Amino acid sequence: MPWFRANFHCHSTNSDGDAGPEETARIYRSFGMDVVTLSDHNTLTHPDEYRAALGSDAIALPCSEYTGPKCAHVLGVDVDDAVAPSREQADVDVIGILRDGVDRVRAAGGVAVLCHPCWNWTWDHDALMALPDVTHFEVFNAAPDCNSYPTFGRSAPEVIWDRVLSTGRLVYGVATDDAHYYHAHGRDGKPPRKLSPPGLGYCVIDAPELSRRAVRDAFEAGRFYASTGVELADYRVGPDAIHVRVAPWSHERATIEFIGIDGTLLARHDGLSADYRFTGVERYVRARITDTTGGYAFTQPVML
Ligand SMILES: [Zn+2]
Ligand SMILES: [Zn+2]
After folding, report:
1. Which of 89, 169, 233, 258 is the Cys-Cys partner for 276 at CB 3.0 to 4.6 Å?
2. How high is the pLDDT of residue 72?
3. What's the CA-to-centroid distance between 208 and ligand 1, angstroms?
4. Tell me: the pLDDT tens digits for 67-93?
């Protein structure tokens, strides 16, 4: 089965990005993305605007970011129309705004992904639990103000993930880079102190072919892992065990951790491959791979 790289979340000059759709698409293609999407705020940048920049061996997928107030945003993946709030929502709480975003993504035919929970610490596991039909959220958003990087072991979005998974509910973790700036400049003319370039967060999708339908189906069904640069040569889930093998980029070393209920560390292996045998009491098992380049990969939870 081939694996395809996809970033579903970035911006162009059609909203607040600093490169036009064609240039943005060309940059993503140069980073090796097989699936290129532009998810501008409250609008739909149609793939016709950038498909010519992709060449013949990549596809475009229409996406749009519902951009509500209070930092409550919902990404619409594979939508037929723009997703946007229809009215001022100052009187609506964050959960209500996210609810509206999810409903609008569904009405536009897309897969809804709750965005950047820790941007201004907008929402947490209680919000995800209050939206029981949501299946995807950003466990990693590379923008520095989205606080997706780990401090002591797990990152803040991972803590949200483990709390929800521990209730027995399956939610898939998505990585994106949410790039806005493709040219080196900082705020107010000063050099940037924190970088947020494209290519830092993406999904690696296990689809039978590189087509809009196949990629959407695989993403919707959770047949992908989230990456910040760590990629896998093999990932298999059997009735008794999980097998993970890292595809090293150079000579880096990796640590493979298997995580279960309440974020418990079930097993840890230093090396490029590992197997985990289910004991039956984990409730769920997900793998988290880190390497000496500073990258991560998060596989989707296996519910037991
Ligand atoms: Zn956003
Ligand atoms: Zn965004």
Report:
1. 258
2. 97
3. 30
4. 999 999 999 999 999 999 987 787 899
CA angle 95, 99, 103 (to 5 degrees): 175
Q: pLDDT at position 150, please?
A: 87
Domain ranges of the chain: 3-228, 230-304
What protein residues have CB closer than 5 angstroms to ion ligand 1?
73, 115
pLDDT band at 175 (very low <50, low <70, confident <90, very high): very high
As given in the structure block, the two tokens for residue 109 are 């035919």
Distance CA 220, CA 216 (A): 6
Instruction: Look at residue 89 in the predicted model and tell me its pLDDT.
Output: 80
* Segment holding 142, helix H or strand E: none
Distance CA 283, CA 260 (A): 7
User: Residue 227: pLDDT above 80?
Assistant: yes
In the chain, alpha helices (H): 21-30, 94-107, 125-129, 156-165, 212-220
H/E stretch holding 61 reads none
Q: What's the CATH number for 3-228? A: 3.20.20.140
Q: Span 100-116, mean pLDDT?
A: 98
> Residues, the chain, total?
304
Decide: residue 127, CB within 10 A, 0-12 exposed, 13-18 middle, 19+ buried. buried
Dihedral angle over CA of 43, 181, 188, 13, nearest 10? -30
Element (H, E) at 214: helix 212-220
Write the single-letter amino acid at 232.
L
User: What is the architecture of the domain spanning 230-304?
Assistant: Sandwich (2.60)
Q: How many angstroms separate the alpha carbon of residue 283 from the centre of ligand 1? A: 32
Distance 299 CA to ligand 1 centre (A): 23
Ligand nearest to C-alpha 178: 2
Q: Counting ligands in written order, which one lies closest to the CA of residue 66?
A: 1
41 CA distance to ligand 2 middle (Å): 7
In the chain, pLDDT over 90 holds for what percent of residues?
A: 86
